[in-house]
Specification:
The chain is an all-alpha fold. The protein has two domains: 47 residues, no CATH class; 136 residues, Ferritin, core subunit, four-helix bundle (Ferritin). Helix 3 runs antiparallel to helix 4, helix 4 runs antiparallel to helix 7 and helix 6 runs antiparallel to helix 7.
Length: 188
């Protein structure tokens, strides 16, 4: 039996020695496959993380949006000229449309935004009564802050839907700021 095992070992060693090139090729091929497989996984993981949205970003956008909607709604509750009312209605409708886009992006990315960030009633109770000029000024200030925030998002995010919303919002916000500034001049 011992002789048989020694003989088998000798035959195996002779086979390995005679087929070194084939054995080396097989081991090299397996190594290449393993390395390639690991590289593909790394690339896939990177692309997933690059397009991922931080929930806090969407919540901050929703909060900012809510403030603008609340102040425009509160302003419309008081007596004012038609031109001012039209300005507030335009800003409000743009931000309600933006709210729906934010909701869709959140839903598509499995992010839950608290429902309280869509209800303006509690926030309006904290906004003090003011004249039309002050409402216009405060709305302009909120829009300027939003503009900077969306510019930052447009340059830093890798998520295409969020980038599109940010770029569209920048355009709309600039138009609304210009309209409010004209209305402020009329109020003086």
């Amino acid at each position: 039996m011992l002789f048989y095992l020694i003989s088998l070992k000798t035959n195996l060693m002779n086979t390995i020695k005679s087929n070194k090139a084939i054995l080396f090729f097989i081991l090299f091929s397996i190594s290449c496959l393993i390395v390639t497989s690991c590289e593909k996984k790394t690339k896939e993981e990177k692309s997933i993380t690059n397009t991922k949205i931080d929930a806090q970003v969407l919540i901050e956008i929703a909060e900012s949006n809510l403030k603008v909607v609340a102040i425009t709604q509160k302003a419309q509750e008081r007596e004012m000229g038609n031109s001012s009312r039209t300005v507030f209605q335009k800003v409000e409708s743009d931000h309600i449309e933006l709210k729906n886009k934010i909701k869709k992006i959140a839903k598509d990315n499995f992010i839950i935004i608290p429902g309280t960030l869509y209800d303006t009633t509690p926030l309006k109770s904290f906004i003090s009564e003011a004249n039309t000029y002050m409402y216009l000024k405060k709305t302009a200030d909120l829009l300027l802050a939003e503009l900077e925030y969306y510019k930052n998002i447009a340059t830093t995010t890798q998520n295409d839907p969020l980038k599109i919303v940010a770029v569209e919002s920048i355009t709309n916000i600039k138009k609304n700021i210009a309209t409010i500034e004209k209305e402020l001049k009329l109020q003086e």
